[in-house]
User: Fold these one by one.
Assistant:
Number 1:
Amino acid sequence: MCLATLGASGARFEPLPDRYLGPGCHQLGTVKLERLSSDADRIELSSLGPLSCPVANTLAGWVRFGVDRAARQYLGSGIARIETMGSYSCRNVAGSSRLSAHATAEAVDIAAFLLEDGRRVSVKQDWSEGSSAEQSFLRVVHQSACKRFGTVLGPDYNAAHADHLHVERTGQGKSFCR
């Protein structure tokens, strides 16, 4: 059902075999997501590894209805590519002994957005020092992510997130948006 929903969204992806990769680390029900759809075009993804199908579906909806539409409204151009810092990584949450959502392919780190007109809006450079339109765009996409994902962390959360938006499906029963 998840793969059918993802396919109906216009995403281009490949289902991946289940893999167990270490204590608590796995890639179960994952896909290799290559491209998403906007209202008008295709949106490429860079540096994205295996991602659980439910997270891929959530990402597809957020990109189409939250990110691309916000880019058109605030920046006057749609999204051509989203630059990520990856998805799956068998590791703990920084400074803790608890596994990260990345360890089960349930999270993505978003670094920047390349617009159709060639401009690049980076979380690291434009969150605080970009134009007012770029800053507004980044805050709107951050807030729209909070409506779809269980946990969303950005530059205002801590220094470890100064250069990306961390989005994950999990939220331990309630959403956490910072």
Number 2:
Amino acid sequence: MIPIGSLVNAAAIIGGSLIGVMLHSRFPERIRQIVFQGLGLSTMVIGMQMALKVQDILILIFSILLGGIIGELLKLDTLFERLAGKLKKIIGSKDTGFTDGLITASLIFCIGAMAIIGSFEEGIKGDTTILYTKSILDGFASIALASTYGMGVLFSFIPVLLYQGALTIFANSFQEWFSPLMIEQLTATGGVLILGISLILLEIKRINLSNLLPSLGMVIILTAIFK
């Protein structure tokens, strides 16, 4: 099947990023700062709302811990930085915030209930409503992000398209595997990671979220084994 919702989402990110890049020099620093503070606080609320859907807190804790250890051993953060650096070199960008923009935007757009549940809804039911709604939100968020980080944000459409598209196709092929419990546990784990994003946006604490991404896979495995 063709993941239409993810294609629309990618297009919204590209459009929003282009607007943000054009507004880059026109945004006063205090406006950019308040926009990021607002985005950070909103992201925190979304993360808390998702995390509170947890059904088994022990599985969530072990998923985060084991996922983080796996990520550190694989050095995912270094891998992502190298990939972003290669992409920056290919397109000839001299933007100093390219790598940070690409990684930050990718994490914000990929880790979330709407990305997961929206992809499942399209894959299982053919309903693109959630992903279309997410596209609108991501489009506006990409304007704010690109106005600060630059062109790197635009290229976050690549991991979004690959991630959500893969989830949609996977859900369509293996829909009987995903029980409501599995989706809630996955959503809660994603919520914890989103809380980490909010701490970065608010400049409270720099968390190595790239190396925590395997937690999303671990929660599926642990939930399948113990539930």
